[in-house]
Design goal:
The structure is a single chain. A hairpin with a 4-residue loop joins strand 8 and strand 9 (155-161). The strands form two sheets. An eight-stranded antiparallel beta sheet has the order 5-8-9-4-3-2-6-7, with helices on one face. It has helices at residues 4-21, 64-67, 257-267, and strands at residues 49-50, 70-73, 77-83, 86-89, 106-111, 126-128, 138-140, 142-150, 155-161, 182-187, 195-201, 213-215, 227-230, 236-242, 252-256. It is 12% helix and 29% strand. Mean pLDDT is 84; it is low at 1-6 and 17-41. The protein is α+β, with helices and mostly antiparallel strands.
Length: 270
């Protein structure tokens, strides 16, 4: 059995390695485009677009080799495979559901996936490739929370899965959430099959005590944990964490990736 320090070393080695050689994917050309859906939204008009089982047929969607890395957690969060069967999501996805939000702060390392919640481990199973009518082509069990935090300063989790797709969206050590940059989000809102929030711009950080960066890409419950991707590089620049009750003047928000990377370096010894 690999001990904790070795496992953490291997994980952080993955981040450093990918800094040098990670591959970025651009949007691809094709003959079709996709139309919008209508329904409940968070920010003003609904911009969600349903992603079909084969996104490679549509010019405005990211290709399957990128989207295959995005999974749906059974209890209702979005997860991204970052390589080596490791995945990233929001820390609050592992909170005890019976605690008030202001009592649910935590920081943990190397614990079972249901350590905090007491829910069945099956609640944390992840299915990748849930698009259109497909229920997914790769399914992995959550084996361990490597590190997770949920609080005003940080909301993220790195988990180890029993199985994950070959495709991954790697963490980049130098990635940053930069004010004014265009970003995009693919997620599983309300546990639905994959949907695209289209593009939006990174706004200022919140000023209410939560260390989060804001944006106007639409999200719903179930979008928590989704990777916020820079549209030019497709780097992960944030992890979606918070919606807003104000659909006209509010903003959604996420955890800047540079804060997560710094925490990983500090806590996992590199």
């Amino acid at each position: 059995m690999i001990n904790v320090l070795m496992r953490n070393f291997l994980f952080l080695g993955l981040i450093i390695f990918i800094t040098a050689c990670g591959k970025n994917y651009k949007q691809h050309g094709s003959s079709k485009r996709l139309g919008m859906t209508k329904g409940l939204t968070i920010i003003r008009e609904n911009n969600f677009i349903k992603v079909p089982e084969n996104p490679d047929l549509y010019t405005n969607l990211l290709p399957s080799k990128t989207l295959n890395a995005i999974g749906r957690m059974e209890l209702g969060c979005t997860v991204t495979h970052i390589g080596g069967n490791y995945a990233i999501t929001a820390g609050h996805c592992f909170s005890n559901p019976y605690l008030r939000e202001d009592k649910a702060s935590f920081f943990v390392k190397d614990v079972s996936c249901n350590y905090l919640s007491g829910l069945p481990l099956s609640a944390y199973n992840v299915s990748f490739g849930v698009r259109g009518n497909s229920l997914g082509n790769v399914k992995g069990n959550c084996e361990r929370i490597i590190i997770a935090e949920n609080g005003p300063q940080l909301d993220f989790a790195i988990i180890k899965l029993s199985k994950a797709p070959v495709e991954a969206i790697f963490l980049k050590e130098k990635s940053k959430a930069i004010l004014g940059n265009k970003v995009t989000i693919y997620s599983h809102p309300s546990r639905r099959a994959l949907e695209w929030s289209q593009d939006c711009y990174l706004l200022e950080r919140r000023r209410d005590g939560l260390n989060r960066i804001q944006y106007d890409c639409d999200t719903e419950g179930g979008s928590s944990g989704a990777a916020v991707l820079d549209t030019e590089t497709l780097d992960i620049v944030a992890i979606h964490t918070n919606g807003t009750p104000d659909r006209y003047y509010g903003h959604n928000s996420g955890q800047p990736i540079q804060d997560i990377i710094n925490k990983l370096k500090l806590e996992l010894g590199i």
